[in-house]
Amino acid sequence: MLKDLELSMAYLETLKAPADELSQQIIDNVKKTLTVYRGELCKGPAPKKSGQIAQILFGSRKIRLGSAPGEEEMREMEERISRFVESDNPIEINCLWGALKGYGRASLFQNPDIGEMMALRRFEDLHVKVSELHGKGLRVNIIMEDIGSSILNDKVDGTSGYIESYYNSLKDISSELGISGRIQVKKESELLAGKGFDVPAFLVYAEKNCNMFIDYLTASQQVDETAWNALPEYITLQKAGWKGTIPMVTREYYFQRVATKNPNADMPERILYACKYLGLAFARYQCQVCGGSFADQTGIIPPIKASFVPYPPGTDVELKNGRLEYKVFDDKDNRRSVAPWSGCGLIVRKDGCLKSKIVGLNEYRQMVETGALPIPSQFTVRSKTKPNDKPARFMAGLIM
C-alpha cells in the first residue's frame, strides 16, 4: 500500500526519542505491516466466481471476527455479489465508522493512527484479491457517523472540531495513498442530501425513534421476556419498521459500552444513551443513508455491509445476512478486536520484536493512571511522484 510513497517519522517528545537505528526499524516494521499481498485464491471447490469472491470477503479466522458464515449467509452473499459482477459494477461495501477518535477522551490520539492505516489496508488487501477475479474490484464507502457522534458525545468539549479534524485527516491519507477512488471517506451528513433529507429531518427521525425505544424498554422491564413481542410499545416499533425484541443480553451489551465511555454513568443515563444510539441507527435505515450507488436490470443493488465491530450478542441471525466483520490486525488466535476509531494504535517492542496493536479506552485509562503512556510519534506519508502535494500524517504510540 506504500508503493511509490516515502514514509518518515518524528517523535513528538524528543527527549524520549529512541536511537536512530531503532527509528529505522520502526519505519521498516510499519512498511511491512501495511504491505498488501496478492496471495492465493480460495481453496476448495467454488465453481462460481461469486462464490470465490464471497470466500475472499468472508476470509479466514485470521481476518474475520466471529465464526465462519453459515449456508444462508454464504448464499445471500453470493447472490448479492453476482448482481455486481453480472452488471459489471464494482462490488460496493459500506462501512459505518465512528467520527470521534477515542470518543474524544484519549487526549493524545484525536487523529488517525496505525489502527486506521491497518483498517484501510484491510480493504485495499481485499480489493487487490477480488480484482484478480473481478476487474472492477471493490468500492468501499467509509461512512463517518458525524451526526451520531455529535449527539452521543455532546458533553465532550470540542467535539465538532475533533470530528472535522479526524475526517479531513482520514481523507488526506486515503488520497495520498492513491486509494481514494476505491476507498472513499464520506460523512453521513453529506450523504443525506442525496437521499432527499437534511440534518434537521434526520434528527426528527432519531428523536422520535429514541422516544419509542425508551417507551419500549421501560414497558418491557415490567413483564417477562416472553411477553415482550406482544407489548403495544413493541408493536409500535414494528410498524415503524424495526425488527427484533432487543433481548436482555443485547441490552447489557449496550449498557456496558456506555460504561466504557463514561464509567460514572448511572443506569438511567445508560438506558438513555442506548436509546439514542438505537434511534440514530434506525434513522440511518429510514433515511437510506447507506443506500446503494449501483443498479442492475432489477434495480438498486444493496451494498454489502462491513464492520470492525461485531453485532451485539442476541442479534437476529437474519440481520447478519450481507454483512462482513473484520479484525483490524491479522491475528488467527485472537477472537476480539478494537475498532480503529475507538482505541489507540501502538507499536510495542517486546523481546526484541516490534508489533502493532490497538488498545481500547479502558486500557488507555489504565496507562494514564499508571503513568505508562506511550511515546507519541508521527509518521508522514509523501508521494515520490508528486513531492509538492500535501503529505498525509498518522500517529502511533511507541512502547519501547
Summarize the SSE layout with pairings.
Layout: E1 5-11, H1 20-33, H2 49-58, H3 71-86, E2 91-97, H4 114-131, E3 138-144, H5 146-152, H6 159-176, E4 183-187, H7 188-194, H8 199-220, H9 232-240, H10 248-261, H11 267-286, E5 295-296, E6 299-300, E7 304-307, E8 323-325, E9 343-350, E10 353-360, H12 361-370, E11 375-383, E12 392-399
Parallel strand pairs: 2-3, 2-7, 3-4, 7-8, 9-12
Antiparallel strand pairs: 1-11, 5-6, 9-10, 11-12
Helix pairs in contact: 2-3, 8-9, 8-11, 10-11
Give a written overview of the molecule:
The protein is an alpha/beta fold and 400 residues long. It folds into two domains: 303 residues, no CATH class; 92 residues, no CATH class. 41% of the residues lie in helices and 18% in strands. The chain is built from twelve helices and twelve strands. It has a five-stranded mixed β-sheet. The chain has a five-stranded parallel β-sheet with strand order 4-3-2-7-8. Strands 5-6 form a two-stranded antiparallel ribbon. Strand 5 and strand 6 form a beta hairpin. Helix 8 packs antiparallel against helix 9, helix 8 packs across helix 11 and helix 10 crosses helix 11. The longest helix has 22 residues. The chain is globular and about 65 Å long. The mean pLDDT is 88.
